[in-house]
Specification:
Helix content is 65%, strand content 0%. It has 71 residues and is mainly α.
């Protein structure tokens, strides 16, 4: 998986934690409760799909952001 292959750092911890939280919130109906349009239900109606989409989007965001770290 992502955590075991890349190691545990702030990026993988953020991606893992946020996708897990969004997935759990979707499962409990606490996130997007009755707000999802019918056209987006196939993508956002399932907690596993929603958590996976959050993980992919955060991974892409971290991958393509400008790096201003200290060498």
């Amino acid at each position: 998986g992502l955590v075991t292959s890349a190691g545990l750092n702030h990026q993988t911890t953020t991606v893992t934690g946020m996708s897990l939280c969004v997935g759990i919130a979707m499962e409990n109906g606490l996130f997007f409760a009755d707000v999802i349009p019918p056209s987006l239900l196939p993508f956002l109606g399932n907690s596993i799909v929603t958590g996976s989409l959050v993980a992919v989007l955060l991974t892409l965001m971290f991958r393509f952001r400008p790096w201003h770290g200290v060498a």
